[in-house]
Backbone:
């Protein structure tokens, strides 16, 4: 069994490490927050003092960070992974970052004969805990095959999206559709209600018609229609509005970079930005429905 | 078996009448185009000279017209249905019109003890021919029960949406979600392609992820991904861009009337309007994807 | 001097009546609120009990009401003006209402040989008090000439916009541009500030460049740039967000009615709707700038 | 008189050099297109073979290039300006590029004691020829003072916008307002016309009212309202749609970079993108009005 390094032990990284430990892997952990690391060491992980100390002891390095800049620094700085990791070893970046940065990292890794995958996830904190994440993976196919079993310890669907950066591309394109359709479904329910349609009746109709979408069927934003979704639990996340905004901004950065026209992606990004501006960063992203109506009308 | 009247014998009305004839119903037909009526008379329908002549001979009147104004006139003018139809008889308006006009007709019908249903359809010309339409029905429940068997001659799903006008409300809310999600899916595929993702690969990923929606799964706008959809057949409709624009404008009229905020519904209406302005009224509505990119890039 | 009737004595109507009284006119007043009428009677206006009592005693009737439905009722109901006003007399509707309703009223007036003008105003409560309103007037030119002196008692610019309804059309088209440009200027200042430009410096630059517009030059939404504008006075109106939203919705109703594509008009309408949803109906309309940023950043 | 270097001799750069020559300056020129350089040499400019040869002979270097990447390369590559220019000399980048790249260049220049200004222009090719450009200048005030006389040879308004990058910031914020207001004015005129208002009448009204803006007053997009504007000359530029799209994309890149919400800036960017997609890159940017209506209606 290969030994694993894991850098970035936040809401997502921490339960992912626990799943690796549960499967019997030896996991070396690092985070700028010492307490995040301590928590996992208490559960059986191994402590290291620096990123490079970690890189020298493992065959596979995972990163799960917030921004492209953080990821770049962790891999390419003087104190970073690439300066310490032997050729042939494998890096898997599970962070959601921009495609340009991701592809730049792949290129540098390749120059050093380091195997690299971008493997952003969907499924949220709940999926990380339950080991039911979806991984969308970009990089060389042989590296994907090598990583598959390992990723399966933390996720349910492990999807190969093609060459370097395609995991990031797949995720932001999918989540752009998701963000738009969540707003679309919200608008549909609000309008239906204003016109006198019972929300459960409209759910039944649209779920069986051409308006069907995942946002409606599995994550309906109208409170009281589905049980066990954030909308029926005061919009407790789930997947926060701030996270959706981050992904929408990544989609808009990619659209700008590639001169692509995304009218509703742009609009969805604006709407989530207004929602976050109003203080709802930590609400579930389906809470956007509350912005479409005066607060006492829902 | 009740005798049926059918007013409005266009692309939708004509095959609907044929399905009623096939089931053995006696159908009296009327259209301002004599040739449209003649065609059905040759197939066994009964000719009448005026709307009121029709109204006097049937127990159930269907209307399938283009605009709220036409529907109003056919029912409420001096030469209209309501002046000739006996109390207790049933009117079923299958046109897609605005909720306000529809509810006004219900109110007038009720004053004359005429049973009324609004029953707009989805499924397009293909669904009309194959008798696989979906009917979204508004009005009193007992009238719905009375109409159900009859509607089943022309459609597969007969859904009760609640009181007067709710059929129209359900249709425009569903189709507003449809129009938005068709654009969302188009943006997703265009961006994915620009970022280097194979369209079939992106289909596979999004179809199994949170971006899934009917527009993607069953009607994918990216040419070459699905067979037997308009996108793979030069955007031959199907459901035309002009029809989608009509439904989106109905949604925006309802939103204005009810002071509802529909940001993406408004934007989708603008985008289909620009698409129709550019000469694409008769293209399939999934053809909106061609507007998002220079024409030679798809 | 002709005697005047004035119906609708709210924030706008009341000071308008006072200006007519100041010029020496005899003014009969009516409002559903008795106290609004009493206030003006104390200042010299004449009381009436009903709209028709008023109509019988005056040569010119002004209306200044909230909605198209109210205006229709006041003019065309059984107890309305048209049933009591002698031919040849003049009606001037100063309300801001939809073009369709306005033109329908003109048509009915014409059938009864009543002279009619639509004459919506801009300038707000301050303009009404100072008699500096702008009137945009639609109707026959001879009626406009007849009304000009009278309107000049209440306003500074009296503009003839053409045939029936054109006053309403001019106002909503102008205010649609105003609403959009207010948001545009707000976005420009917010972005400039985020990029490190001093707001006063950016004002100086844009005011002398191609970004110049009335919203910037005379009504700058960035607090602290201009004195004596709502932005520098906690967004105390001025012209409320609710009034701007009303005009934008009228523009969108006119766009729908005439199948016109107004992408930014639609978007501005959505943004003011979100702003009003958040509880800012009574803020000045330039307060929309606060929605574009987290509240503590401005 | 200082000797000048000028790199980038396109539609803008070429007439700018001619104006410097006209004032008696010695100008060394460079362009990747030899013929562009030859043309100016025939008019009295001095030829050089490389950028660094140029840099070694002049006191002030101007650059007028297309993209941030080109500008970066010209200044910072091994064969670039910074490797050859002595300390104390002055660089003025007149290109319109993103703020981040511009500020990065300033920082590098400062490390080498090179004086740097960003000085993007407005006024287009016509302004470049007539020496009536507006320069928006960012950098240290003393450098601005040093450059002022020189810039005045090519422009009419030389505006100081503050520290490094603020020239770029001012330009994109101004042009974002311009792009939005051009669309707003277009929508206003189209709607006015559809509602039956004479365009010249609407111009007169809005120009004197709160809808007034530079796009309307000086550059009215409705054909036939103003003489000597592109709208009355088949939308011959002027300022092309492609250039407006470039500036709007720069504004959106800056907005993403600084997490700023620009709803109408995003929408304007989308609309110009659709317009360029349809083949109108080289039309004047006021031609966007033609996209808002079927082509035969204007």
Residues:
């Amino acid at each position: 069994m290969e030994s694993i390094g894991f850098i970035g032990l936040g809401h997502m990284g921490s339960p992912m490490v626990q799943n690796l430990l549960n499967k019997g892997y030896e996991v070396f952990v690092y985070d700028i927050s010492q307490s995040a690391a301590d928590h996992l060491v208490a559960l059986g992980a191994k402590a290291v003092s620096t990123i490079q100390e970690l890189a020298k002891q493992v065959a596979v390095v995972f990163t799960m960070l917030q921004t492209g800049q953080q990821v770049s620094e962790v891999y390419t700085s003087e104190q970073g992974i690439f300066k310490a990791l032997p050729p042939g070893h494998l890096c898997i970046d599970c962070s959601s970052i921009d495609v340009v940065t991701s592809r730049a990292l792949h290129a540098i890794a390749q120059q050093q004969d380091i195997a690299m995958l971008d493997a952003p996830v969907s499924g949220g904190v709940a999926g990380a805990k339950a080991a039911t994440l979806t991984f969308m993976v970009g990089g060389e196919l042989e590296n994907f095959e090598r990583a598959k079993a390992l990723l399966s310890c933390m996720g349910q669907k492990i999807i190969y999206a093609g060459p370097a950066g395609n995991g990031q591309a797949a995720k932001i394109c999918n989540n752009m559709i998701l963000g738009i359709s969540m707003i679309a479904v919200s608008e549909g329910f609000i309008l239906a209600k204003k016109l006198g349609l019972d929300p459960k009746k409209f759910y039944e109709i649209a779920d069986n018609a051409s308006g069907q979408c995942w946002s409606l069927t599995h994550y309906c934003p109208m409170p009281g229609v589905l049980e066990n979704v954030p909308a029926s639990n005061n919009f407790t996340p789930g997947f926060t509005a701030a996270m959706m905004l981050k992904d929408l901004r990544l989609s808009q950065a990619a659209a700008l970079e590639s001169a692509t026209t995304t009218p509703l992606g742009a609009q969805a990004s604006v709407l989530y930005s207004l929602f976050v501006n109003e203080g709802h960063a930590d609400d579930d992203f389906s809470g956007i429905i509350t912005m479409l109506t005066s607060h006492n009308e829902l």
Summary: The radius of gyration of chain C is 20 Å. Residues 184 and 215 of chain C are 9 Å apart (CA to CA).
